[in-house]
Amino acid sequence: VRSWSPARAGRVNSSHRACLIARFGFIYARERLDAETLLRAFICDMETVQRIIYIAAVESFRAAKMAFWKLKRSVKETLALDHVGPGSLEVAALDYIAHHKDLYDVCQSVQEVVCSMNMNPKIPYPPDVDFFLIRTLIQKLCCLAFSMQTLIPPLDIALGVDGELFNRTMYYRSCDSDFSAPFVAYHVWPALMENGAVIVKGEVVTKK
Fold first, then answer.
1. pLDDT at residue 91, as a whole number
2. Burial letters for 76-89: b for 16+ Cβ neighbours within 10 Å, e otherwise?
3. Which of 3, 55, 77, 92 has the fewest CB atoms within 10 Å, measured from its CB?
């Protein structure tokens, strides 16, 4: 059995962090585009499709973080009964969850995300479009967001607002943007953040 050490814990956290950041990029490059293709079979307007996927990403992180907070509280209560060792109870709980990801009911989070999307007033489309169509994207985002909460510090996404001033340190402009426009018309993909710093840029469309 390996003894606990701050140096080893830091190396493990750093390696895990790098893997999760890479997965975030992979989802953007593959699952996001697959979801676009699925939605385009029912929705002609590309802006609507991109808005739906962005909202799915935001809601997936929200649902996963809520599930994580609830699970962490339960785990800490259990571990507190006989916790010993140099590490804090908080770190012990994070380590336990990181090694027991099967405790996370991702299917429940997917259902919550779809329910939230069905009631979201920013999605200008009839409710006959079943958002379970893109459940693969939602499930992968939920699992990723959940795992990101086990990091110290955790990773999260930036919440964008339509009409905000374009920030080149946080976003790339989509290829169909007006590159002279100073404001964000809508968001395509969120930026990944760590302690308020941008780790991976997101994507937006700018228009005058």
1. 83
2. beeeeeeeeeebee
3. 3
Of the candidates 149, 36, 165, the one whose C-alpha atom is nearest the C-alpha of residue 98 is 149
Give the CA distances from residue 120 to residues 123, 128, 156, 180, 192, in Å, rounded to whole numbers and listed in that order.
Answer: 6, 14, 21, 31, 23
Q: Which residue has the tokens 């699952």?
A: 31
- Kindly report the backbone phi and psi dihedral angles of residue 156, in degrees, each rounded to the nearest multiple of 5, phi listed first: -150, 175
Query: What pLDDT is recorded for position 158?
Result: 97
For the chain, residues with pLDDT lower than 50 are 1-5, 7-8
Q: Is the peptide bond before 153 cis (omega within 30 degrees of 0)?
A: yes
Q: What is the pLDDT of residue 194?
A: 97
Pairing mode, strands 192-194 and 156-157: antiparallel
Cβ density class 142-151: b for 16+ within 10 Å, e for less: bbbbbbbbbb
CA dist., res. 13 & res. 17, Å (int): 6
Domains of the chain, start order:
6-152 (no CATH), 158-207 (2.30.22)
